[in-house]
């Protein structure tokens, strides 16, 4: 009996070792799938990223990190079905201890609102057919649904900030959603907060980049982050300028567009927006210069509405400059 007991102990120990080794291999495989999925997601290879996620979920269908990556893939795809799938996934994890899921859910609801708002506009214009007996009523209902989703979206972005107060993605979400809801003052406040945080982040990364003998891989990551932050800063300055124009503060709006040009001097639309502010203020020469820069940088076809408008505005500038020249007004100096 003593030998039999010893054999049972040995067998149990062997099974335990085997189980422990299997668990280690399983967790390592899951980690690889997560890492590869994130890399592919960052590179925009959504189909391959989703394949990695699904391979991982075959091992553990409840893996939270894989499911969160899957929700991000759905959001980047952006179709109505994808956004709905993202919302369903994210509602499982959003809460007091998961700011990433809170932000994701805020974004999913924001997108749902945008899709409904666009559908309402298309029904009103006749571009979209509807089976509703009263198309006008249907459009109003869709707008109400959009507002309801934006209201909930705001709550989830704010929930994320309660967990992580300086989380840039959440502040960026509030900047967008408050603008969609028509509260430009709150949108502008979010823009200003975002600009302050993003500037500090860029300063830190540039300081890191200036350190001697940093590894090539880290240097490449720093440059990628700086470039992404420059784009975010540009978008935020442009969002702020739009709000300021609507609030009647054109001079402040111009300052934000000037900052955008410094960040992304090859971005055509900035010059178009700045030209319109110059023209509204009677600065035909500056408007003309910005319009020419827009036409030089734009990749739009010449028949595109923005291009046609730019040529029309440029013609207006030339007329104004010629008229000013004949009277030697300040516009020509």
Note the overall shape.
Answer: globular
Order of helices and strands: HHHHHHHHHHHHH
DSSP helical segment count:
13
Q: What portion of the residues fall into strands of 2 or more residues?
A: under 5%
Beta strands, count? 0
* Portion in helices: over 70%
Average pLDDT, rounded to a whole number, is 90
Helix/strand-derived class?
A: mainly alpha
- Which consecutive residue ranges, at least 5 long each, have pLDDT under 50? none
Structure description:
The structure is a single chain. With 333 residues, this protein is an all-alpha fold. Helices cover 81% and strands 0% of the residues. The chain contains 13 helices and no strands. It has helices spanning 2-42, 46-59, 64-77, 80-91, 99-125, 135-163, 168-180, 184-209, 216-246, 250-263, 268-280, 284-297, 305-327. Helix 3 (64-77) runs antiparallel to helix 4 (80-91).
């Amino acid at each position: 009996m003593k030998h039999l007991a010893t054999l049972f102990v040995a067998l149990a120990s062997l099974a335990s070792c085997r189980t422990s080794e299997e668990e280690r291999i399983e967790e390592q495989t899951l980690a690889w799938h997560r890492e590869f999925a994130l890399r592919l997601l960052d590179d925009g290879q959504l189909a391959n990223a989703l394949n990695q996620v699904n391979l991982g979920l075959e091992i553990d269908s409840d893996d939270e990190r894989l499911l969160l990556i899957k929700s991000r893939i759905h959001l980047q795809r952006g179709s109505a079905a994808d956004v709905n799938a993202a919302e369903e996934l994210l509602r499982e994890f959003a809460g007091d201890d998961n700011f990433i899921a809170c932000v994701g859910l805020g974004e999913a609801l924001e997108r749902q609102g945008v899709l409904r708002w666009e559908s309402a506009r298309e029904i009103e214009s006749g571009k979209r057919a509807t089976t509703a007996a009263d198309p006008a009523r249907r459009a109003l209902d869709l707008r109400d649904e959009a507002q309801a989703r934006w209201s909930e979206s705001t709550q989830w972005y704010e929930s994320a900030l309660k967990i992580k107060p300086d989380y840039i993605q959440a502040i960026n979400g509030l900047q967008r959603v408050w603008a969609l809801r028509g509260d430009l003052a709150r949108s502008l406040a979010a823009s200003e907060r975002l600009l302050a945080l993003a500037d500090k982040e860029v300063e830190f990364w540039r300081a890191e980049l200036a350190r001697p003998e940093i590894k090539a891989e880290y240097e490449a990551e720093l440059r990628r982050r700086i470039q992404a932050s420059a784009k975010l800063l540009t978008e935020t300055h442009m969002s702020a300028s739009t709000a300021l124009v609507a609030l009647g503060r054109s001079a402040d709006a111009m300052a934000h567009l000037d900052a955008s040009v410094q960040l992304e001097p090859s971005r055509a639309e900035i010059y178009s927006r700045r030209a319109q502010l110059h023209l509204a203020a009677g600065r035909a020469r500056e408007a003309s210069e910005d319009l020419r820069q827009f036409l030089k940088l734009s990749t739009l076809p010449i028949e595109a509405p923005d291009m046609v408008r730019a040529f029309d505005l440029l013609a207006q500038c030339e007329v104004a400059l010629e008229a000013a020249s004949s009277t030697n007004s300040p516009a020509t100096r």
